[in-house]
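Lab notebook, bench 4. Still working through the backlog of constructs that have no structural model yet. Next entry is a single chain of 333 residues. Request: give me the structure tokens for it.
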Amino acid sequence: MAKRPDYTSNFTHTNLTDTGSMYSMLQYTDRKDLSLVEVAGYTANAFRIIIDRERVNVAGYSAFEWPLHHREQFANLGFDTRCVGGPTEIPPTPEELERALELIQWSLDRGVPLLAWDLFVPEFGIIYGYDDEARTLRCRDITKDGELPYEKLGRGHVHELYVMAVTGMKLVGKRTMLHGALRMAVSHAREQGYKREHSPYRNGLAGYDAWIEAFGKRNVEAYGNTLHGMYIYDQRLFAAEFLKRIADEIQGESPEERLLKMLAGQASVQYDNVADRLAEFVARFPFPKGGDPNDPVQASAAIRHLSEARAEEEKGVELLEEMLKVLDGTAAK
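Model written out:
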């Protein structure tokens, strides 16, 4: 595609709110050296796709077990974490709210913001200050930077409490982080991650199948579809750039290093190809109105774009698996 939309502002912005929030938190830690591209890559968020097979529901982007997922991501960056709450769909009890406020104040007194959910809208954001006398939190998400009363925490649009703080850190090398990121990315691509009973959500390569299935039924939610198109296109741009930078950084002359460099470069091209296919998709269903995804002509074209993107991504995943084999072999020596 000759001209692709740039939602990333040359990789200084991401629409994926937990990636952006984690990056903001890291600016107050010893890992402020990591770029936004590196945070997207080393957390494996750049490789994420979660789709509702029934309607491409807007909630798909957050259909994962937040505490487990974010704990694993932070651990890959070298951080220990503690959290209160999760995707329960239940308002917090007074005791849970009190525990959350204690964690928030403890972390902020150390000078480190926290990751949180549904501060002003159902997205991830950060809590970066508090006023105990006024009983308010200072928060920022994609829609607002402002004050939130203590009692509104976990009682926003969706009535779910979730806050996560980093509690400790050990310095982890980038090669170790790369190994962990590739492992998470391949697992996400190949294995079902959201295992709640009767869940309609599918991730990884099966996420593309779910998306295609919904289009085949002519039962696609216009806003959810355009939102996921924008999000996943954004993420694949970051995936391609991350792998390109990995390839550029590898300077070793051993056979293993040369092979790893070649594979990273090839994987970057594959994920750039995925972004090309998704660029066509987002042009057809532009955010935020999203066009008419259930029109037969539009649905047929969407299925073609998504099928092509899936085929390119499967080749990309195979290259990530080859990179993992090289890293596993190097570590075994």
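Notes after review: The longest strand covers residues 124-131. The chain has a mean pLDDT of 96. Flag for follow-up if needed.
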